[in-house]
Each structure stands twice: as C-alpha cells, then as structure tokens.
Write a structure and sequence with these properties.
With about 500 residues, this protein is α/β, with parallel strands linked by helices. It has 3 domains: about 1-95, MurE/MurF, N-terminal domain (Udp-n-acetylmuramoylalanyl-d-glutamate--2,6- Diaminopimelate Ligase, Chain: A, domain 1, 3-Layer(aba) Sandwich); about 100-335, UDP-N-acetylmuramoyl-L-alanine:D-glutamate ligase, CATH 3.40.1190; about 340-490, Mur ligase, C-terminal domain (Protein-Tyrosine Phosphatase, Chain A, Alpha-Beta Complex). The protein contains 17 helices and 25 strands. The chain has an 11-stranded mixed beta sheet with strand order 10-9-8-11-7-12-13-14-15-16-17, sandwiched between helices. Strands 18-19-23-20-21-22 form a 6-stranded mixed beta sheet, sandwiched between helices. Strands 3-4-5-6 form a 4-stranded parallel beta sheet, with helices on both faces. Helix 5 (about 115-130) packs across helix 12. The chain starts with a strand and ends with a helix.
C-alpha cells in the first residue's frame, strides 16, 4: 500500500488517500485502486472508466485533454491529468512496485525472426544450469513454475511490472523476454533497466501498424538506443546479428554512442563467428570462433537459422559468465515447440511445423528444408496469411514459397476477412501456376500435402507453429497443426 500523494507529489492530493493496487483492467479495480486509462494497440482504456467507477474506484490517471469531461461526469472522483501516459505509468508503477528491475538481470530479445527460439534457448539453458527464471514470450509467460497465458508477446506494462515484482519476491534472478516492436512503441517496457539486449534480424512484418520498414526498424532500435543506453546496469551489453544490414546500422550507432556491443556472424564478420557448419535432418553442428577459442556446438534444431539462434544464445550466456560446457550441454538438449518441430510419419515423410509467417521467415524455413532434404526428394509447403493484417506481404509470401517443389495455399487466421480474398491476394504473387494448389480448409490442406508426399519428402506446415487455434471472425477455434499431423500419421 502507498499514499497516492507519494506517487504524485506535484499535485494537491489528500494525504489520507492510500492505494493498494494499480489497475488498467476495470474488472480488477476497486475503492483502493488507482485506475490508469492508457491507450493501447487495440483498446482505449478510457472507455472502461465508467465500469471502474461502478466498482468503487475513485482515483484515475488519464489523458490530460480528457480530464475536464471526466471530472464533470464524475465529480466525486479524482482525475489526475497526464501529458504522457506511457512515461507516467512507467514512473509510478516502478515506484509502487519498488523498482523490481533493479534486483533482476533483464535479457531482452528483439527482431523479426528468431526471437522466440533465441529467448527460449536462453531460458531453457538457464533452467538447465539450475537457475530460476521468469520468461515472457509468444508461447507462454512463466514466473518460476507459475505459468500464465500469453496475451501478447510482451505483457502490457502494468502486468509486466507486477510479474517482475512477483519474480523478486520469489528470489528469481533472471528474466528473459521477447520484446516486440508493438511493445516498444506502446511503452510496454518503458523505463526498464536492461542488462542485455539482442537483435536477431529485421525483415518485413507489421507494416499495417508501423507504416514502413524504416519506422519498424526505429521501433526495434529503441531497445538499444534508448532503453539499453539509459540503463543503469553496470555490465549492460548489446548482441547484434552482424550479417543483417539493419544489424550493421545498429552496430554503428551503438559504437558512436559508446554502448558495449558484440556482433555475431555466419560470414566471418563478428566477434563470435560460426564456421564449419554441417546441416542434416538430425540437427546442426558447427564451430564458434571467438578470440583464440574454437567451440564445437551441436543441437537437434535444424538449419542455418538455428545456427544464428544458437550462437546468439551461446554468446549471451558466455558473457554472463556461465561455464562453457554447461552452456553447450544445455543448448544440445533444447527443444523449441512450433519452431521447425519435426514429426516423422510412418511412411517416411517428414513434417516440419513452423511459425514462419513473414516472407523472410518462410524463405528461411524452406531453405532449411532444401538444405537437409535428400537428393531426388521433394519439398512441400503449406501456408496462408493472417486476415486484418499487413496485406502487402501476401504476394511476397507467394514468391517466398516458390523455392518449394509443391505449394499448397490455405487459411491461417482469417479473422474478419473473407478467406478466399486473402488466398487470392497470395495467389497474385506467384510467377507460375505449376504445382500450386489452393485449399481453403487448413485441415484438408495438410491432408492434401500428405497425400502428395512420398517417402523422404519433407512437408513444411508454416504460419501457426505453437498456436493451437484459428481465429475466424472474432472467435478462436481450437486447431493445432501438430495435432492434425499426428492424427494423419495415426490413421490406418
């Protein structure tokens, strides 16, 4: 509990008002809450002030321009105006929850592709080495052994701070989080002091929100040039994919600003370099060249993309001071659900289930298939595109898929759009109609791929990965690519 005046010393607030919680969900608000009405990606929380008031809440932090109207409508309530809700919410939440980031080692991973795999590798490795962790990502949120449904890749700020506070109370030291571009734009990590920040790559995605690739990059770069730069952590450091042109831009900026950074490369451009790379259906093997050391890495993960992910995880864990053999052992044991997840059918067909839902991710996933497939065997890809999202990438997804021998276009999460319209937008991007099939029902599309496959062929089912649902209209229906494939494989 805390006197409200302690959070807002510049305002004339009755010193007897004490609050026990900060809330942005009106269903959780009561007479002892401060309700913060920020504006999110899809929701303007100001619309829920009436509901919070009805539940007894009388203390509100809201947009300054809207204060007079709300004060008039609710004269017995206190409305504190803000010119910058993101910044003010950050300041008061950190103060209210006693600055949990100061007691934690925060590791943030951003980039278009590879965030989930890299973050999961680090989290699984820390746990394998006996550390308690908190983890926030696309697949799940964890505080120790307590699991929460992931509402977003990165929790909203108040939820995140509450969970960080819980981590401190649970004597957890390490926090690993995927930091999405939306999170950086909307202030979900505003004011946090990061110890380590990693950049995997940047390719087209979320342009429906950011407007351009440059704005998308600027959102991603905030993790480094603002949050990491302003962090008060003594050993703070950035880890950058030096093979990515946007990574090179970041390295130049970080160098100019004197922010410690290490680069990683598969092309000999970094401090940590991968060489002697061997790829197979069993996994990856390669050697890290680092200063005068040669470190041999093995993993059951597949393809060049996971060379990038594992070298990033190794570099971060190494700089954190963990034992080299312990790091290598934990990386070798790691399993990433929905990221090139392998299922072998009884007839010898290999399925790979992957989350790749951007043109670049799809290209890289198909490259993985083509790099491990035996001579004379075929690659088959099943994919779609989400509705109510960036339409410009749909024809680009078609071009990306043309590296496969057989392509089946289907539904992903159509949301409120007509699935046929989405598929037709994709079909417009193909340069040839040969070996291109259209099957609107995703279950039937996976079945069609299996019917066309022969022993040794590899089927990539892309776009959903770990997700166990489809969004049709505004409703989530249970649907799992992994479950559907296992049913096919079990069928007589």
């Amino acid at each position: 509990m805390m006197p409200l005046k302690a959070l807002f010393p510049k305002f004339e607030i009755d010193s007897s008002i004490v609050i026990s919680s900060l809330e942005n969900d009106s269903r959780k608000a009561d007479k002892d809450s401060l309700f913060i009405a920020y504006i999110g990606f899809e929701v303007d929380v100001h619309n829920y002030i009436n509901d919070a008031y009805g539940r007894g809440c009388r203390n509100f932090l809201i947009d300054g321009e809207r204060t007079p109207a709300f004060q008039k409508n609710f004269p017995d309530a206190l409305f504190i105006p803000s010119d910058d809700l993101k910044m003010d919410m950050s300041k008061i939440a950190l103060q209210f929850y006693h600055y949990p980031d100061h007691s934690l080692i925060l590791i943030g991973i951003t980039g278009t592709n590879g965030k989930t795999t890299t973050a999961t590798l680090i989290n699984q490795s820390l746990r394998a080495m006996g550390e308690e962790t908190a983890f926030f990502g696309t697949v799940e949120w964890l505080v120790g052994d307590q699991s929460y449904e992931a509402q977003n890749t990165t929790p909203d700020f108040l939820t995140l701070i509450k969970l960080l506070h819980q981590a401190v109370k649970s004597n957890i030291r390490f926090v690993v989080m995927e930091v999405a571009s939306h999170a950086l734009s909307l202030g979900r990590v505003e004011g946090l002091n990061f110890d380590y920040a990693a950049f995997t790559n940047l390719t087209q995605d979320h342009l429906d929100y950011h407007g351009s690739l440059e704005e998308y990059f600027m959102a991603k770069s905030r993790l480094f040039v603002e949050l990491l730069a302003d962090s008060n952590k003594r050993n703070k450091r950035a880890f950058i994919n030096g093979d990515d042109p946007y990574g090179q831009r970041l390295l130049r900026v970080l160098g100019e600003r004197g922010i410690p950074s290490d680069s990683l490369s598969l092309e000999g451009k970094g401090l940590f370099n991968a060489r002697d790379i061997q790829l197979s259906t069993q996994g990856i093997q390669y050697t890290i060249s680092y200063h005068n050391k040669l470190i041999k890495v093995q993993s059951s993960l597949l393809g060049h993309i996971n060379v990038e992910n594992t070298i990033m995880a190794y570099a971060i864990l190494d700089k954190m001071g963990f034992d080299e053999n312990d790091i290598l052992k934990s990386i070798a044991q790691a399993v990433i659900p929905g990221r090139l997840q392998k299922i072998i059918a009884p007839n010898g067909v290999v399925f790979l289930v992957d989350y790749s839902h951007t043109p670049d991710a799809l290209v890289k996933a198909i490259d993985v298939v083509n790099s491990i497939i035996d001579e004379g065997k075929r690659s088959i890809v099943v994919f779609g595109a989400g509705g109510d999202r960036d339409k410009t990438k749909r024809p680009l997804m078609a071009k990306a898929s043309e590296k496969a021998d057989i392509v089946i276009v289907t539904s992903d999460n159509p949301r409120t759009e007509d699935p046929d319209t989405i598929i037709n937008d994709i079909m417009a991007g193909f340069t040839s109609s040969q070996n291109i099939y259209k099957e609107i029902d995703r279950r039937d599309a996976i079945t069609l791929a299996y019917e066309k496959a022969q022993k040794g062929d590899v089927i990539l089912v892309a776009g959903k990965g770990h997700e166990d649902y489809q969004i049709i209209g505004k409703t989530k229906f249970h649907f799992s690519d992994v479950e559907e494939i296992k049913k096919l494989c079990a069928a007589p």
